[in-house]
Amino acid sequence: MFAVLAVEANRVVAVEQLLERVWTEDLPHRGRQVLRNYLSRLRLLLSPEGIGIERRPNGYVLLADPDVVDLHRFRRLVIRARRADDVQALSLFDQAMVLWQGEPFTGLDTPWLAAVRTGLERERIAAQLDRVDVALRCGQHTEILPELFALAELEDVNERVAAQFMLALHRAGRTTDALAHYRQLHARYAPARTGGCPEPLSAPDQNMTPHPWSDQT
């Protein structure tokens, strides 16, 4: 229940939404009374942390400084990073990414939380790739190669990841490895293009001059 309210911190969540998001179709007997009991216990636990839960005409709201909830602090830091210059952006992205400690809502499994978890994972990947772009512009090609290698393994059909990985390899003096990675991806996905796989990246020449491996940023 705390997870549901925390995701919607400082926004009212209707009683019916709370019941559905917490219990889905397996509602307890006298669900509204059970809900009130849980919320009373949560108030006692959260009050020493400066977090409140208030009843509103159409639901409940968790009142907290957005920076107290990791999710909202992450989003605020990412927004600031995307508006900052590269040096400051790297620091802000790092502060945002360190807030991720494993999978969100571990041990909680409802359809609503599963959908939120999937959306948050997309947000994390997008922020991570934005940070990689900044790191590449700052010349940190060698430093980010381990991170990009792991991303390339997990996101092997993501063209943005592939382009970043090959650009980092090229700028780190590993052009042969970049070309080999391109050929591996092309061999894997080009035959299945008509089956819905993403368009392959444009083949580079041996000087690595075409997009996406040029040294222009």
From TrEMBL:
Matching SMART domains = BTAD (SM01043)
Q: Name one Pfam family in it.
A: BTAD
Write out the GO MF terms.
Answer: DNA binding
SUPFAM superfamilies per the record? C-terminal effector domain of the bipartite response regulators (SSF46894), TPR-like (SSF48452)
Q: Which domain of life is it from?
A: Bacteria
Q: Which residues bind DNA?
A: 1-64
Record region (Disordered): 193-217
Domain OmpR/PhoB-type stretches = 1-64
Keyword check for DNA-binding: yes
- In its UniProt entry, what is this protein called? AfsR/SARP family transcriptional regulator
Per the UniProt entry, what species is this protein from, by scientific name? Lentzea alba
